[in-house]
Amino acid sequence: MSAARTSRTPLPGIGVRYDLTTREHRHLSVVAHRDGSRTLSAYRRDDPDACALSVHLTGPEAEALVDALKPTHHSPTLLSTTELGLVAERIELAAASHWNGRLLGDTRMRTETGVSIVAVLRRAEAIPSPGPGFRLAGGDTLIVIGTREGVDAAAAILGRE
After folding, report:
1. How does pLDDT run across 124-141, given as a tens digit for each residue?
2. b vs e for 54-67, b when ≥16 Cβ sit within 10 Å of the residue's Cβ?
3. What is the rounded CA–CA span in Å between residue 96 and residue 105?
4. In a designed cystine with 143, which of 60, 89, 110, 119 is the match (CB 3.0 to 4.6 A)?
């Protein structure tokens, strides 16, 4: 039997959509909204474009579902940011971004939002703890951590074209 196929699609201003096609050719999707909520959708087998079920989950409901699906995912050595009131997210820098080719420090991200950029993903490379002299490039994915409000503000700053 073939393995499940997955894909990830950024939805600017909304979040990220994750699609899964199972080995039985069933199509599922999850939209991870910026506010932490999730929309889980299942599509009809005879028409993969027709949604048979759509369930909107709050952040805590989504976490409960993850616990039910994979109860051993927690590690006592991992930081649980939600318990501390923090969120960690990926924010993709568009090719047409105002910040393409500019220095990370020029964004004034930490000063303006309180958000920390803990890593930048560029192609197959991860750059941990980029400093203010790091030059951003379109297509970079920034891993940020901060409050929900701070992360939303960071996304707005980085979304500038």
Report:
1. 899 999 999 999 999 999
2. eeebebeebeeeee
3. 19
4. 119
Q: Residue 136 has which token pair?
A: 């951003």
- HEC string of 15-79 equals EEEEEEECCCCCEEEEEEECCCCEEEEEECCCCCCCEEEEEEECHHHHHHHHHHHCCCCCCCCCC
Report field, pTM of the whole predicted structure over 0.85: no
73 — pLDDT class (breaks 50, 70, 90):
very low
Strands 125-128 and 5-11: unpaired
Residue 9: is it exposed, middle or buried by C-beta count within 10 angstroms (0-12/13-18/19+)? exposed
